[in-house]
Amino acid sequence: MSKRSAVKRLVLVQGDITKEKVDAIANAANSGLRGGGGVDGAIHRAGGPSIMEECRKIGHCPTGKAVITSAGKLPAKYVIHTVGPIWSGGKKDEDGLLASCYRESLKIASEKGAKTIAFPSISTGVYGFPIDRAARIALKTILEVLEKHPDIQEVRMVLFSEADLATYRRALEEIIALP
Fold it and tell me: Which residue of the set 16, 23, 40, 164 is catalytic?
């Protein structure tokens, strides 16, 4: 599978991830899977209590890993909860852990037969990861996985703001321009 084919299956949009009609949405979760603010809180509120019930049974998810639950009342079938790193200035393998979030989430999606997956910008909210850096890591990782997984038909990056969308578009243009 080529980089060009992978790029065609990557879509950048501004929107509300809880409204995405995809097989799976990724949730920027905390390690205790307790719900919270930002994307995590929005997913739990929109999906209803069944998601939290499943999260309680799972109990914990380490940084850089992912777990899956049903999606409750959301239009998706699954929620893949992944725990991004808290930014510490790049001294604690934050880049590697962030890339792992995307890889692990896509691996679980593929194992469950999910053909379409929507991601938020993981770790760039309250966890403080610089969005320019996070965008490059996220997109490069997603494209690498897509090259190896023709079973995944579309990955959508659902960005909250116009500024975030512009940042991801710039990052994608840089990545595409690389040899």
Answer: 40
